[in-house]
Amino acid sequence: MITIALTKGRIMQETLPLLQAAGITPAEDIASSRKLRFATNQKDVRLLVLRGADVITYIRRGIADIGVVGKDMLLEDGGDGLYELVDLKIACCKLMTAGIAGTSSAVSPARLRVATKYTNLARVWYAKKGIQIDVIKLYGGMELAPLMGLADEIVDIVDSGKTLLANGLESREFIADISSRLVSNKASMKVKHAQLMPIVDALSGAVK
Asked: H-helix or E-strand containing 84?
């Protein structure tokens, strides 16, 4: 059995057409189901629907053989024990710093308060710039943190920038381009190489 882990939300919505182009379709409508495990039209392939960070855990632990996850999660995690196989070029956005529009990015020269769910990335980014930070871990509603005085800046994914604008914030510094990647468990690629590579090649072809 080949197990493919998918990231919930936008990434999954944009992954399903690629899987279909590669000849893999769920046996039922994922969007209308509360299930998290799905059979497919391929009797030896099944799908799991997970949060992004959990996709990495399931693959690393060998429960899933391959999966689709955002590059932001891979950068935050470090990607140890995983192969990054294909840039699927979906769910594209940018990882940026942001703050209240019209204010200086150096709100506190001595130490910045930075709200983000990307705590490792934030520490590395600001350390490279020689800026000390206090990291405030949040899981959502990041734009509210500067407005309410919880943080000086945020580190978050920016797509169109409309959410920042609507909340009186502006993007400041670019950290990385983000898109979704097909990744695999290293052990699975050795043991199930002959089964996995046709799927990998088909997805790569679907992207092209």
From this structure: strand 82-87
